[in-house]
Amino acid sequence: MNLRKPIFLFMAALTSLAAVAQQPTQTINKDSLPDDAIIVKRVPLESGPEFNATDVLVVDTLPSSSEGLNIVLYNDNTWRYVRNRNINVLDETVFTQNWDTTKIQVYTTELKDIPISMVIDLVDTLKSYHYPHKGRVTSKYGPRRRRIHQGTDIDLETGDPIYATFDGRVRICTYVRGGYGNLIILRHDNGLETFYGHLSEIMVKPNEWVTAGQQIGKGGNTGRSTGSHLHFEMRYKGQTFDPERLIDFSTGTLRRETFLLKRTYFSPYSRFTQDFEEEIQSDEEDKKIAAEAAAIKYHIVKRGDTLGRIAINNHTTVTKLCQLNGIKKTSVLRIGQRIRVR
Ligand SMILES: [Zn+2]
């Protein structure tokens, strides 16, 4: 009897050791965290549905509760929200300033003139995001041999569909010999531009509006390319940054809904890492950004609206509205104009 107890304890210890060994590798070093730290697991945003405008016919367009969105009914009994491009462009100048359908590089903004950090809304109420192509990353952003790789290469078979990443407008469709090959550049409401290179086929035209998940072309091997792949770039004001900061290409998910774009990211040596310290910091920033964004409220100007009426309806004053929007009490309001009320 005396012998059995130690053996039992030894067996129990072995079992618990085995249990520890079976646990996945812990990447979190809890000692490095402050005592009151809360670990928040970020849930990546799944890719939205594909959008095929050619196979279906629009049966009807109805207004929705949001003036910026219409409900479009299709003949296959499906429906979806579609942006009302007449009034809902977040910043109208995005699609007019530096808009050139012939020149790839149109921004003259220098790196030093870009804010140290800025908040980019990747998705809005439409949750409009779709991966450009889901697959293995074969070449990362950054220094590669003697050149700088301006984007991420994703493996594919020639003919694979390539999708618009966010809603936006086609700026460039061209062929760049010895470089991008067949190239599409889209500009999005959030101010970002996405580049899709080495395509075998281009299925859109400049100035056309596109929806996230809409097929814009087919993957290929055109231009300076060995083996079929998608060369995908993300740019802000002409400056590139690592697309893997936003997209997990192996799963197709968007890593975050709001992105704090830092000027340091534009360095070709700044790559996305799974560094936990940075993740924690980003989580904190995300929470702050979300709180600030939640506090902001807009009103879309309707027929008959005056600053006084908007102020009363939103429990604020005309003076405050003027301050928030950088306008005068005498400014004329346009229907569809977005007025920040909080
Ligand atoms: Zn590439």
Task: Report on this structure.
The chain has four helices and 22 strands. With 342 residues, the protein is of the alpha+beta class. It folds into two domains: 210 residues, Glucose Permease (Domain IIA), CATH 2.70.70.10; 43 residues, Membrane-bound Lytic Murein Transglycosylase D, Chain A. The strands form seven sheets. Strands 5, 8, 10, 11, 12, 14, 16 and 17 form an eight-stranded antiparallel β-sheet that branches. It has a three-stranded antiparallel β-sheet with strand order 1-2-3, with no helix packed on it. The N terminus is likely disordered. The chain binds zinc ion. The site of zinc ion has 5 residues, from loops.
Main features:
about 350 residues, alpha+beta, Glucose Permease (Domain IIA), Membrane-bound Lytic Murein Transglycosylase D, Chain A, 2 domains, 3-stranded antiparallel sheet, globular, disordered N terminus, binds zinc ion
In short, what is this structure?
With 342 residues, this protein is α+β, with helices and mostly antiparallel strands. The chain has helices spanning 4-22, 276-295, 307-313, 318-325, and strands at residues 58-63, 69-74, 79-83, 117-121, 137-139, 142-144, 147-149, 152-155, 161-163, 168-176, 181-188, 192-199, 201-202, 209-210, 215-218, 229-236, 239-241, 247-248, 253-254, 258-262, 298-300, 338-340. It folds into two domains: 36-49 and 89-284, Glucose Permease (Domain IIA) (Distorted Sandwich), CATH 2.70.70.10; 298-340, Roll (Membrane-bound Lytic Murein Transglycosylase D, Chain A), CATH 3.10.350.
